Amino acid sequence: MTDTTIAPTAAPPSTPAPAVPEEPGTPSTPVPVDNPKLPAPGVTEEKRRPILPAWLKDRTEFAATARHASGRLGYASLYHGVRLPWYGVQLAAMSPRGACRFAAETNRWLWDREAAPLRGHAVRTEDVDEYLHLARLRGNRVRLRGLVVMTAAVFGTGFALWLYVMAPAYLWAFAAGAVLTMGYFGQQPDAPVIGPAVMRTDLQKLTGTIVLRALDSIGNAKISAAVKKGGDMNGMRFTSEITRDGPGYRADLDLPYGVVPEDVMEQRQALASGLRRKLGCVWPSGDPTEHEGRLILWVGDKPMNETSKPPWPLLKDGQVDLFKPVVFGNDQRMRDIMVTLMFASVVIGSIPRMGKTFLLRLLMLIAALDPRAALYAFDFKGTGDLGPLEPVCHRYRSGEDDEDLEYVVHAMRELKEELRRRAKVIRNLPKSRCPESKVTPALASDKSLGLHPIVVGFDECQVPFEHEKYGAELESIATDLAKRGPALGIVGMFATQRPDAKSLPPGISANAVLRFCLKVMGHTANDMVLGTGAYKAGIRATMFTRSDRGICWMSGEGDDPVIAASAFVDGPGAEVVVARARQLREDYGNVTGHALGEGPSATIGMDVLGDVLKVMKATEKALWCERIAARLAELRPDTYGEWKGENVTVALKPWSVRTGQVWGQTDEGEGKNRRGIERADVAAAIARREADRLAA
Ligand SMILES: Nc1ncnc2c1ncn2[C@@H]1O[C@H](COP(=O)(O)OP(=O)(O)OP(=O)(O)O)[C@@H](O)[C@H]1O
User: Fold this and answer.
1) 203-302: in CATH 3.30.980
2) Residue 322: CA atoms inside 13 Å, Cβ hemisphere, count?
């Protein structure tokens, strides 16, 4: 522990024990609260310290360390490689000085000059014995050293002559080496020729004193009082040594009684000032495995947005099972953060340009890598950010014009029908196959049931929900998706840059399981995305700066919200992932809809049967299809404007309404047989449909 270790202190014996009345209403006979015979719980908690340091066990961390080391080595080699000739010139210029120094030093050594002051002292103090002893020592040394110098001179000269005769080229190499060595000795100590390739500025080490100074500066009266008290810190103490943890330091401490980590988290900026670090380096949090007063203070070497993230593991390789957790980003310590998309509805919110679309696209990429999943991607910004996903999308649209919204309405009506169908399929499955009345991995993989995962992404979802004509219908289907979708294998993801009640209807925000909040400006938007009470509990996306792009509070995975930096996958990166996902889908046989150039059916979700019945008069037993098409176009020009007789035939076929030859009169009064349908068949189909719906 550091010298600032704070040990818990026992209450002085003189402290009167708090007491409670023996019985309610009889305050005169107090009974001590602390019973000396009360047994201790007999539980000793043990925590084993890891045998190997974390970076040796974690492949990603190990790879990052190795990458860093080899990167530095490569850089230093290049840096010095380029400067080698200049080093040679400088060292050659310094070699005469080096040679003089060498000769002077050798001379000094040969004659044992280093002991001269001792001999001088013996002479001055007239210490004859000491002098004689030193003189003898010098005589021996000079003899031995003279021999060494003579031998070196004879052998050196002999070796040089031998080289001169046998291999003159080597003589020059040795001579150059000697000149450089002399140059090396001739350098000025304060200006070496070969300087460092990397200038390092050492960050201050995190110490207990610094942590306490910072905590004292956040303006919390209880903490300040505890820090000032010194010995008795009102329960405040470090619970373990300050350690290195990933690219930063970690300090674990108990806060004073009654203070919770949220009190510190709220004052993160003041804490950062007290620590003399950038805000992005300072990450206080609670410890879910301990009590409510435990604080983990993690202080990074660099702000989170400047720390290089490991590449997304699925970028180049791998497949996804949407029922299992998948890496989508990293925490402050650059450890992997997982997300499980199945059984969740997702909301993503932030102010513009913070990385919402990138995050939504990342989640869609994860879904794309599960070959079973059907993807519906709708980008209402219209910039084509979700475009790389087109080759794997069942439905895809980018834009906010009326025809784009019409496409989306049709696709969403398909999903509404799909919700209904899935509910029926699941209800009819035996409990042994579907014990929890929800889609299981085995059911999702059974192609005959059609219960594969469906992932629907809305970017800028405020646009469709505020649309004059389709807004209400889209909101109602999307809310249904958010509520019932997860159990039925449908994941709805809604991203918005304006998280308010209009953009993110309460039915969706209240039912979301996974919530991602990048930077927002106020507590209302914060709680809209992260859930009511999040801001108060210290889960504040307002604390992010504008350069914290891609960094968000994430809740819904695990017990507590976490801060995550989502993996950065740009457009070209997304295309690479999609190419792999497309191949997986081709192998699995799941390339459908938009990926094959097909759009949603305009009749899905429309009450074609009802409309047909409406346009057939009660007195008309049967009617030509072309007449029905013309009357439908009059009834709803938007929907049926382009319809011909064949469209009626095709639209009624799934309802088992067959066409046949019907006798009628043309506008000119001529009698003719043409394709038509009987009114009774339509009425019967409607009755069947209603019975089915009631049963569902
Ligand atoms: N995970 C990330 N890591 C680092 N930078 C990111 C990350 N995600 C996004 N960015 C950067 O943030 C910029 C904005 O991203 P994006 O387009 O997703 O923002 P947005 O919130 O959707 O904006 P808008 O609301 O205007 O649509 C991107 O150009 C990208 O450079």
Assistant:
1) yes
2) 31
CATH superfamily of 338-595: P-loop containing nucleotide triphosphate hydrolases (3.40.50.300)
Q: Is the CB of 497 under 6 A from ligand 1?
A: yes
Q: Where in the chain is the domain with CATH 1.10.10?
A: 608-695
Return d(Cα 568, Cα 549) in angstroms, integer. Answer: 10
What share of the chain has pLDDT > 70, as a percent? 91
CATH 3.30.980 residue ranges in the chain?
203-302
Q: What three-state secondary structure class fits 16?
A: coil
Mutate to test the pocket of ligand 1, among 327, 330, 357, 459 (most ligand atoms within 8 A of CB): 357
354 lines ligand 1 (CB under 6 A): yes
Q: pLDDT tens digit string along 483-538?
A: 999 999 999 999 999 888 778 888 899 999 999 999 999 999 999 999 988 888 77
Ligand 1 midpoint to CA 513 (Å) = 23
HSE (side-chain half, CA atoms, 13 Å) at 224: 8
The Å distance, Cα 356 to ligand 1 centre, comes to 6
**Mean per-residue pLDDT for 679-696?**
80
pLDDT band at 16, cuts 50/70/90? very low
Helix, strand, coil percent content, the chain, rounded in steps of 5: 45, 15, 40
Under 8 Å between Cβ of 379 and 386: yes
Task: Calculate mean pLDDT across residues 95-109.
Answer: 94
**Burial level of 548, CB count in 10 A (0-12/13-18/19+)?**
buried
Q: What is the mean pLDDT of residues 471-478?
A: 92
Question: CA angle at residue 545 from 541 to 548, to 5 degrees?
Answer: 85
Ligand 1 center from residue 504 Cα (angstroms): 20
For ligand 1, atom 25, the nearest C-alpha belongs to 352
- What pLDDT was estimated at residue 535? 86
The answer regarding whether domain 608-695 maps to CATH 1.10.10 reads yes
pLDDT one-digit tens code per residue, 292-331:
999 999 999 888 888 888 889 999 999 999 999 999 999 9
For residue 185, give both structure tokens: 């000795």
Bigger pLDDT: 299 vs 244:
299
- Outline which parts of the chain fall under CATH 3.40.50.300: 338-595
Pocket test for ligand 1, best of 315, 354, 358, 563 (most atoms within 8 A of CB): 358
- Is 199 annotated for ligand binding? no
Which tokens in the block code for residue 143? 């003899």
Whether 602 shows a pLDDT value over 80: the answer reads: no
Confidence (pLDDT) at 7? 40
- Cβ(536) to ligand 1 under 6 A? no
